[in-house]
Structures are given as structure tokens and as C-alpha cells.
Design goal:
- This protein is an alpha+beta fold and about 230 residues long.
- The chain has nine helices and eleven strands.
């Protein structure tokens, strides 16, 4: 587990906890590391909502399937990000979503009850952990608001450009990789993959962007010309 400490230190849940404290904390919380192959389910919709996961490597997605089997991707998570905490803290009996690996992944699993309940040894990091948990939930709410903004755009083109613009700003470069494949991106934005692919081709032809697989490069000059 020690070789993942640099990843855990980036996780908002463990902000301010490092080194020997992190080792002691994981032991106190009964943390377990599990491996999942691409496409494998980590949490199933309907199972008990008691675990919190932290992505150590690879990547996962949180999804919701409706009665007819239509899938909506609610969030896409990278190493250092946590999932499941909102449902566990809400006291839900059953998970309303599933979580699956989008790549071969390593995940740290923690029992949320151990996070929220001070142990018999009264470990001093528990109060900090709870504070971090609340901060993380607030950040998840902001991420949800971003998704609502993407979904509220009227066209597939506008949804794509809003999302890609945020990715560029977040990564500090007009050239970047998105954390998912094309199908997952279409599900996340709530659009048909074929329509999204057609729109990407139009934007590429117009010089607004260039792309191959998960790699993108935005061209501000092309966007300016497109708006004229």
C-alpha cells in the first residue's frame, strides 16, 4: 500500500494526513486494497451503501441504468478521487448507482462507519478525516453542478465544447487527454455517440479542434473564426 501513498495524499479525504499517520489511520479504518479489470463492477446498484472507495490507479465511473437499460454516466473518477461517500453518509440502505472500472484499476475500500465513528483509541486524525469528508462532499456537489451546466446546453456541439473547455482549463493547456473513452463521454453528456462523433468531425474540419482517441487540442483561433 505504501507505494500508493503519494496518490492518497492527493485525495481530499486524506488532506493533511501523511507518512506514519496515514499508515496508522488505514489500519484503524480497516482499509483494503482490491483489483478490478476493465468493465468489472466495483459497487452494484441495490447493494448495501456502507463502503467508500478511493481510486488508486486506473479509473472508474459512477453510472445509473433506468428501467429500459439506458445508461447515464454520473461521474468519471481518476486516481486520488473518492466515491460512494455521499450515499454512505446519507444513511441509504441501498446504493442507487453502480460503480465500474473503465480501466484496469486498484481501489482502496473503507467502511464509512469507521470513518464517522471515533475509535476506542480516540485517534486524533478522526476529526480531520470527518472535516475532509465534508469538504469532499461539497466538491462533489460542485462537480454535479458542472455536469448540470453541460447537460443544459441546447446542442451536442455546445455540450462538447463546454466540457472540453473545462478540461483544458483544469489541465492548464489547450492540449490534453480526457479521462474516458468516446462512449463514456457520450453517456456522460447525455448524447448519442453517433451524433457526438459527427459533431467532432465537423469541429475538426472547421479547425476548432483536433482529436485522436482521448487526446484533444483546442484551437482558439478556429473558435473565433467559427463564431464570425
Amino acid at each position: 500500500m505504501e507505494h500508493y501513498f503519494s496518490v492518497l495524499e492527493r485525495c481530499p479525504l486524506f488532506h493533511g494526513i501523511e507518512g506514519e499517520e496515514l499508515t496508522a489511520m488505514l489500519g484503524c479504518l480497516g482499509g483494503k486494497c482490491a483489483s478490478y479489470a476493465k468493465g468489472e463492477t466495483i459497487f452494484w446498484e441495490g447493494e448495501a451503501a456502507r463502503l467508500v472507495g478511493v481510486v488508486l490507479s486506473g479509473g472508474v465511473q459512477v453510472v445509473r441504468d433506468d428501467y429500459y437499460g439506458n445508461r447515464s454516466v454520473l461521474s468519471i473518477l481518476q486516481p486520488g478521487e473518492a466515491f460512494g461517500e455521499a450515499f454512505s453518509c446519507a444513511g441509504l440502505d441501498r446504493l442507487p448507482v453502480s460503480v465500474t472500472a473503465v480501466r484496469d484499476s486498484e481501489v482502496l475500500l473503507l467502511d464509512c462507519r469507521r470513518i464517522l465513528t471515533v475509535c476506542s483509541q480516540a485517534c486524533h486524525f478522526h476529526s480531520l478525516l470527518i472535516e475532509n469528508l465534508l469538504r469532499g462532499l461539497a466538491e462533489k456537489n460542485l462537480a454535479f453542478m458542472r455536469k448540470v451546466r453541460y447537460m443544459s446546453q441546447k446542442t451536442t456541439r455546445d455540450k462538447l465544447l463546454a466540457y472540453l473547455s473545462d478540461q483544458a482549463k483544469g489541465q492548464g493547456s489547450g492540449e490534453f487527454h480526457i479521462p474516458c473513452d468516446r462512449q463514456t463521454l457520450a453517456d456522460y453528456l447525455g448524447v448519442e455517440r453517433s451524433a457526438m462523433s459527427a459533431e467532432l468531425s465537423k469541429l475538426k474540419k472547421a479547425g476548432v479542434l483536433d482529436t485522436k482517441g482521448s487526446w484533444f487540442r483546442l484551437n482558439p483561433a478556429g473558435m473565433t473564426e467559427r463564431r464570425k
